[in-house]
Specification:
The protein is an alpha+beta fold. It is built from 16 helices and 20 strands.
């Protein structure tokens, strides 16, 4: 009797989709930036000709046409497919490339909007695999509703959650209302910007000077050029005498500070405008940005550590910042800003929502590092400055350009750095709690690291030739974003910490942490 084989119909493969039709327009506009410098270069190269401006415009139009054409064909040949187990992307104009990323490798899905996509209602969807660099995947660009929906679909398939909630369309609520944990209004942003002194404007000016020198044959860094240029309009400064020159120098310093402060304010408003941190069913959701808006969801169960930082001046006013270190990444960084400018009392609820504490539990003791480590570090730093001073003294003696006594400045700096190392011992603490490991370091700008004992990936004790003889070691704790290193621990303390943390890791069922 012949066996009867029933042939079941195969399920239809998922449909390959294209990104939004306007995405190639955005790419073409972004590509026009590449035409600016060739146009400027063409104009200066042809500046002796009467048609120089038309030649520069022609160069820009040619580059714009080529960029638009390549962007269109690139969009036509780019497709993505969301399957049951992975997301696949095919791209390439002449030669095709296909890439598949399993959902289990996707650590996070974030949304980002630059200025032009934001005006057009488009969003970039980034699939972060935790490896960084070229291993990341991005879809440029989708409609905002489709981007939100795709993020939730991918997360649902990754977590094995039923997708019945997605059948109602883009208007269907995807999760319960979120709890707001931290918000920065305009007043807070302004205060934050005042402390964010930045020299970025001077870097931009230096870059412009370089291009001016290249295309205009002007040596801006030549002292004779400025001496000749200011001989007329600037000659009155030299006539004011020493007091006037001092006043001019002070005015220049004030201008320097004002420019740096304004630059800091502008950067802060552009980066953190509308900053909002919420606690959702999926984890922490952070949205911020004025021209470029980012929308990142940080799963709570992947948070491995907290980093609380401050600055020399802002510390006096009680301002701190908080970051979480997680398996996912934030635009290439290993940590996420969850409250960049807040009071400690505002940070505690955020830490609690992440399952952490900012203070050791009762019964935990703070331990200092090794005095021998600080003493050896002071000797090494002083020895480096002694070598520098010797080199400076030798060079000045041979050249006769100045007195070798100027080398004493390097020796004085060496003494200051050596004293600083010895003084830092007073602010070097670590404590082991029942669930967390605390590391507190720094004098002028102290920082606090809090790592979960059960979520650390590795524990290592490292010793060099000096430390092995002197009886101290470095404890290296493995995190997704690198390592948390505690230098200068007494050897006995390092082994005690390693045994306790390894014991916590061994007793943990990591499959339960993903819930």
């Amino acid at each position: 009797m012949n066996d009867i084989v029933e042939i079941l119909p195969e399920s239809e493969p998922p449909e390959a989709k294209r990104t939004h039709p306007l995405s190639f327009v955005v790419k073409a506009v972004d590509g026009l930036q590449n035409a600016i410098f060739p146009m400027v270069a063409g104009f200066f190269a042809l500046r002796d000709q009467s048609w120089a401006i038309f030649g520069a415009i022609g160069i820009g139009l040619a580059i714009a046409a080529i960029t638009a054409g390549l962007s269109y064909f690139s969009w036509r040949r780019f497709t993505y497919t969301v399957d049951a187990t992975d997301i696949r992307v095919e791209s390439g104009i002449l030669s095709r490339a296909a890439r598949s990323v399993p959902f289990e490798r996707i650590q996070d899905v974030s949304l980002e909007q630059a200025l032009i996509p934001r005006l057009l209602g488009l969003v970039q969807v980034r699939f972060e695999t935790g490896a960084g660099g070229k291993d990341e995947l991005a879809l440029n660009y989708l409609a905002e509703a489709e981007g939100e929906r795709l993020r939730e679909v991918v997360k649902a398939r990754k977590d094995g959650v039923s997708e019945s909630s997605f059948e109602g369309g883009a208007d269907t609520p995807l999760e319960a209302p979120a709890e707001t944990l931290f918000v920065m209004d305009e007043k807070r942003l302004f205060t934050f910007g005042v402390f964010e002194f930045s020299l970025a404007v001077f870097a931009v000016l230096a870059g412009l000077f370089q291009y001016v020198e290249t295309f205009a044959s002007i040596e801006l860094w030549n002292a004779d050029f400025w001496s000749d240029s200011l001989a007329g309009p600037g000659s009155w400064v030299s006539g004011l005498g020493l007091v006037g020159q001092i006043i001019g120098a002070i005015a220049g310093l004030i201008t320097f500070v004002i420019l740096g402060s304004v630059t800091g304010l502008v950067r802060t408003f552009l980066r953190d405008w509308g900053f909002r941190l919420e606690r959702t069913e999926k984890g922490f959701r952070r949205r911020r940005g004025l021209l470029t808006k980012t929308d990142v969801v940080m799963p709570v169960h992947r948070v491995q550590a907290l980093k609380m930082t401050t600055g020399f001046i802002r510390r006096r006013f009680g301002w701190h910042g908080l970051k979480v270190v997680s398996l996912a990444q934030d635009s290439g960084a290993a940590s996420h800003d969850v409250a960049p400018f807040a009071k400690v009392d505002e940070l505690r609820p955020i830490a609690k929502a992440a399952g952490f504490a900012l203070d050791p539990s009762a019964g935990s003791q703070w331990h200092r590092g090794s005095k021998k480590y600080r003493f050896d570090s002071a000797i090494i730093e002083f020895a480096v400055f002694v070598l520098i001073a010797s080199g400076v003294a030798t060079g000045l003696t041979i050249s006769g350009a100045a007195s070798p006594a100027f080398a004493l400045i390097a020796l004085a700096a060496g003494c200051l750095f050596a004293v600083r190392q010895m003084f830092l011992w007073r602010f070097d603490f670590n404590a082991l709690g029942a669930r967390y490991f605390f590391v507190k370091q720094g004098w002028l700008a102290p920082k606090l690291d809090v790592a979960s004992r059960v979520k650390l990936q590795s524990v290592e004790i490292a010793q060099g030739p000096i430390s092995s003889r002197r009886g101290y070691a470095t404890l290296k704790l493995g995190l997704a974003g690198g390592t948390l290193e505690v230098e200068g621990l007494p050897v006995a303390r390092a082994h005690e910490l390693r045994s306790a943390i390894l014991s916590s890791i061994a007793k943990t069922d990591f499959s339960e942490l993903a819930g």
